[in-house]
Design the sequence.
C-alpha cells in the first residue's frame, strides 16, 4: 500500500519518489513521551530524506486521508471538510484515487464539504464510477431536525449546470 500513498502524493508533487514512517527522535518537551513516528519522503534530485510536514499542508492532509483510508480496510472512514488544504483543481484526481482505493479496500467513505469546487470534482469522477459512490445532502427540517436528500447522478448534474445550491 505504500505505493498507493506515493501515487496519491504524486498528484500534488510528481517529484516524490518514496514515503516512510520513521521514529521521531526529537526531544520535544510537549510530547507525551510516546514513541512518535513521522512521515518522511524521498524527493527526486535530493539525497536527504525530507519530513513531509515541511512540504505544505496539502501534502500532509492528503497523506493523512490516504493513510486513514488504507488503515480502514473493510470498514468505514469519515472525512470532515474533505477540501481543507487541498487545491481545488486537484479535487477530481483526489476523488478518483479515493473512490478507487475505497472500492479496492472495501471501505465506505463518508465525506462532508461546504465547497462547490469539491462537489464539482466529485461529480466529474462519479460519472465513471456510478456504482461506487453516492451523493446526499442534509437539509434542515422543522419536524425531524434534518432531512436527507439522495441525489442521482442526473440530479447532481442538473443542479451543477443550473447553479442550484447542493451544499
Sequence:
Amino acid at each position: 500500500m505504500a505505493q498507493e500513498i506515493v501515487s496519491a502524493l504524486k498528484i500534488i508533487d510528481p517529484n516524490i519518489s518514496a514515503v516512510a514512517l520513521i521514529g521521531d527522535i526529537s526531544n520535544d518537551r510537549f510530547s507525551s513521551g510516546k514513541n512518535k513516528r513521522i512521515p518522511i519522503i524521498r524527493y527526486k534530485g535530493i539525497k536527504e530524506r525530507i519530513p513531509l510536514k515541511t512540504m505544505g499542508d496539502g501534502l500532509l492532509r492528503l497523506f493523512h486521508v490516504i493513510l486513514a483510508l488504507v488503515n480502514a480496510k473493510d470498514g468505514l472512514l469519515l472525512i470532515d471538510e474533505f477540501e481543507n488544504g487541498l487545491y481545488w483543481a486537484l479535487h477530481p484526481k483526489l476523488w478518483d484515487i479515493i473512490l478507487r482505493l475505497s472500492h479496492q479496500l472495501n471501505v465506505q467513505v463518508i465525506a462532508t464539504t461546504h465547497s462547490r469546487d469539491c462537489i464539482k470534482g466529485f461529480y466529474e469522477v462519479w460519472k465513471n464510477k456510478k456504482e461506487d459512490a453516492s451523493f446526499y445532502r442534509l437539509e434542515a427540517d422543522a419536524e425531524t431536525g434534518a432531512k436527507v436528500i439522495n441525489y442521482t447522478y442526473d440530479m447532481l448534474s442538473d443542479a451543477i449546470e443550473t447553479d442550484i445550491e447542493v451544499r
